[in-house]
Each structure stands twice: as structure tokens, then as C-alpha cells.
Write a structure and sequence with these properties.
With 152 residues, this protein is mainly alpha-helical. The chain has a domain at 40-140: Arc Repressor Mutant, subunit A. Helix content is 62%, strand content 7%. The protein has seven helices and two strands, in the order H-H-H-H-H-E-E-H-H. Helix 3 (42-53) crosses helix 5, helix 3 (42-53) packs across helix 6 and helix 4 packs across helix 5 (70-83). The longest helix is centred in the last third of the chain and has 22 residues, at 104-125. It is globular. The protein starts with 10 loop residues before the first helix and ends in a 7-residue tail after the last helix.
Length: 152
């Protein structure tokens, strides 16, 4: 494994996949915050994006689309409703479920945040050569979509 560039002084941290993924996530969050310049967080952005792609999703559907856990999804949706970026209505088929939709203000915030997301991705990928980028993205996709196969 090539020596990873990190600020960690420990060789164990410098070669720890868990630590390096955490640090990469921190860098992505920081870059997004710098580029977005709003109170919108990367996870809020992802929820707005998921709802925009499938307006009327349930919170369970948002969880499936984003990979964010149940309690965090509920909290994030609640905050986005409070900001006026999402609205929730009980579904006609099942009164226990909410259909979540973007508000016009939510569409505006999402549209204004898209350049920040693109700039964040460009900044992150600029650390890699053009030849490394496709393999990196493919590996991330495999890791991100791998089904939970923990053994008891």
C-alpha cells in the first residue's frame, strides 16, 4: 500500500482505512461548507437532492436513497421543514407515513448549492491524477453500496 499523505503522526493511522475515510469525509464536509457559505450541511444537501429526484418520498425512502440512519433522517427532515425547504404531509395510503416534498424555497436553496457541491468534488478529485479518478470513483461506489455482510 503506498504511503498515505496525512497529518497523523502515527503510521497505524496513516494506513488505517477507517481513519483515512473519516479524514476524507471531514475534508469533504469542510470544502462543502467553505464553498456553500450557508447553513446547509452536506447531509442536508443530499436529502434535498434525494427529494428533488423523487418528490413525495417517505422518510424511509429518503433513508434508502441516502444511507442516512433513521433517527438522523428524521432530525434532518425536521430541520429542513423548519427552514421551510421541505414540507411533510401524511400519505393517503398510510396515515403513519409522511410524503416529503421540496418547497419552492427548497428548490432555490438546492439550485444555489449545486455549484458548491460541484466545486467540492472538483477540489477533492484534484488530489488525484486523471488516470486515478475513475478507479477511485468506482471503488467508492462499491464501498458505499456494498450490502451489510457482517458475520455474527
Amino acid at each position: 500500500m503506498p504511503q498515505a499523505r496525512t497529518t497523523a503522526s502515527s503510521p497505524l493511522l496513516a494506513s488505517s482505512v477507517l481513519h483515512l475515510l473519516h479524514r476524507a469525509g471531514q475534508r469533504a464536509d469542510g470544502l462543502f461548507a467553505r464553498h456553500a457559505g450557508t447553513t446547509l450541511t452536506p447531509r442536508q444537501f443530499v436529502i434535498l437532492q434525494a427529494v428533488a429526484e423523487a418528490n413525495g418520498l417517505s422518510q424511509t425512502g429518503i433513508m434508502a436513497a441516502t444511507g442516512i440512519d433513521r433517527s438522523s433522517t428524521a432530525d434532518l427532515v425536521r430541520r429542513l421543514v423548519t427552514h421551510g425547504w421541505l414540507k411533510r404531509r401524511r400519505t393517503k395510503r398510510d396515515a403513519r407515513l409522511y410524503a416529503v416534498r421540496l418547497t419552492p424555497e427548497g428548490r432555490r436553496v438546492l439550485a444555489l448549492s449545486m455549484p458548491a457541491a460541484r466545486a467540492t468534488e472538483v477540489a477533492l478529485l484534484s488530489s488525484l491524477s486523471n488516470a486515478q479518478r475513475p478507479a477511485f470513483l468506482e471503488a467508492l461506489a462499491v464501498i458505499a453500496t456494498e450490502q451489510n455482510q457482517e458475520t455474527p
